[in-house]
Amino acid sequence: MNRICSIYHFFADLVDKSDALITSEKLEDFPFDDELLSSKSAGRFPDLSIRLNRPNSELSGGELIELKSSKGYSVSSFNSTIPSGKKAIGDVLSGDNSQVRSQMVQAGDDVDSLQWRDVFYLVRGQKRGQTKVCLVHGSFFETVRVEELVQRVFSQVLDEQLIESDIEFNNAQRQLLARLFSKQRTFSQTRNVAEASVTLRFRVMTEAKVEANILNPQKYPAIGDNTLNLIVPLHQPDDEARYLRFVQSALTPEKYKRLSIFQITHLLNGPFLVFQSTL
Asked: Are residues 117 and 234 in the same domain?
C-alpha cells in the first residue's frame, strides 16, 4: 500500500474519532483504522503495531502500541513487558509471539527490516465522568534502561539472600551473577523440568511510580480532563521541529490549528512535547 503510516497518523485517527475514546467500554473496542495497522493482538504485547513504510521514508512506521485503561487517574500495571522507549523486534516476536509476526508478514511488512521499534502506550483514565487519554512514548516510563533496571533489582534480591545465608561472594562474582540475570526474557520464558507435571514461567509485574503517572493532576496539571494528548520526548536538539512537522503532515490544517502544543517536564526524565486535543 502507498499510504503513509506512522504513530502520528494513528494520533490523527484518534482525533477524528475522539468521541469513541469516551464511549468505548474497553480500548480494544475502539474503531482503530485497520489500514494503519499490521497486527492486533489484545492481551499480548504489542496490542497494536503500525505498518512499516517504504524503505528510506522519513517516517519509518512500525511503532508498537500497548493499550492501558483504568478506572481512575492511575496508569494500570504493565503485565506483559517492562516499559521502554524502544524494543528490538527480534525480542518482541520471540517465543509465543509467532502469531504477531505472521500478521505483520500478511500485512506486507518486511518485519526484520527495522530492528528497533519505538514503543507507545495508549493510556486512558476515567474518573467521575471525566476522561484523560495519552498516547505517550515509552521513554516516559523508562528512566533507567530495562536491562539495568532488571540487573539492579536482581542485585537487591541477591544482597538480601547473601545477608540471610552463610554464602560469601566477592564483588566480582556478585556483579557477574547480576549481569547474567539482566534480561527480562530470562524470566519470561516457559521452563520445563523433567518429571514435573507443570511448567514454570516467572512473570514480571511493573507499576508506574507517581513521578511517571501522566494522568496525575497534581504532578502533570497540564494534562487536563477530557483531553487527548500525544506526548513525545525532547531529548535531541532537533526533536521539536521534527515532531511539529510530522504531526502537521498527519492532521488536516483545521484540526492541527485546534491543537494546543506545549512542553511538560518529566519529574525524572526531562522535557516532553505535548500535542493536546479536546475530547
From this structure: yes
Residue 193, in any domain of the structure = no
pTM recorded for the entire structure: 0.86
What is the total count of domains within the chain?
A: 2
Distance between CA atoms of residues 20 and 23, nearest Å: 5
> In this structure, are 116 and 179 located in the same domain?
no
CA distance 147 to 199: 25
Question: How far, in Å, CA of 66 to CA of 149, rounded?
Answer: 20
Cell, residue 213: 503517572
- Domain of 116 in residue numbering reads as 7-141+208-278
- The residues that bridge with 273 in the sheet, in sequence order, are 232, 263
Co-location of 214 and 263 in the same domain: yes
pLDDT tens for each residue of 213-225:
999 999 999 999 9
Residue by residue, DSSP assigns 129-162 as: TEEEEEEEEGGGT-SS-HHHHHHHHHHHHHHHHH
How far apart, in whole angstroms, are the C-alpha atoms of residue 209 and residue 221?
17
Report pLDDT digits (tens) over 66-103: 999 999 999 888 776 788 899 999 988 876 677 899 99
Model confidence at 182, pLDDT cuts 50, 70, 90, reads: low
CA-CA distances (angstroms) from residue 118 to 66, 74, 83, 165, 246? 11, 23, 11, 43, 15
